[in-house]
Amino acid sequence: MPYESIDPVRIGVGYFLEADGKVAEKPYVLLRRALERSGKAGVAKFAWHGRERLGLLRTGGDHLFLTRGIPCVQG
Fold first, then answer.
1. Is residue 66 within 8 Å of 57, Cβ to Cβ?
2. What pLDDT sits at residue 55?
3. Of 71, 56, 47, 70, whose CA–CA distance to 15 is shortest?
4. Which of 3, 13, 25, 57 has the highest Cβ tally under 10 A?
5. Rounded CA separation 31/36 (Å)
6. Domain of life here (predicted)?
7. Domain boundaries, the chain
8. Is 23 helix (H, G, I), strand (E, B) or coil?
9. Helix, strand, or coil here: 62?
10. Residue 46 phi/psi, 5° resolution?
11. How many other C-beta atoms are found inside a 10 Å radius of the C-beta of residue 56?
12. Does residue 27 sit in helix, strand or coil?
């Protein structure tokens, strides 16, 4: 399935992410721009309620968007 046809809002719980303070701003912007330029999404490993999870990380305007849980897509 083409990446553009996957709507992360429909495939799981999503969150807009933003940099936490001045120090985190530069790496946040670098990651966001790299994802925008590549046109790809990233797979993110993060902690949620004491457990490690996988999610889909992509751009959403001037923010990063994390979709909790990655669905199995065939095709």
1. yes
2. 86
3. 56
4. 57
5. 9
6. Bacteria
7. 3-68
8. helix
9. coil
10. -145, 160
11. 21
12. helix
**pLDDT tens digits along 53-68:** 888 888 888 889 998 8
For 10-22, the pLDDT digits (tens) are: 666 788 999 999 9
The label of the residue with tokens 């553009």 reads: 4
Amino acid, single-letter form, for residue 62? D
The model's pTM is 0.73
Nearest C-alpha neighbor of 28 from the set 8, 57, 3, 5: 57
Report residue 2 as tokens.
């083409």
Partnered with residue 71 across adjacent β-strands are: none
- Amino acid 15 reads Y
Structure tokens that stand for 75 in this block: 């095709």
Give the single-character DSSP code of 64: E
Tokens 């994390």 -> residue: 66
Structure tokens at 1: 């399935």
Paired tokens of 30: 């670098």
Pairing of strands 63-68, 42-48: unpaired
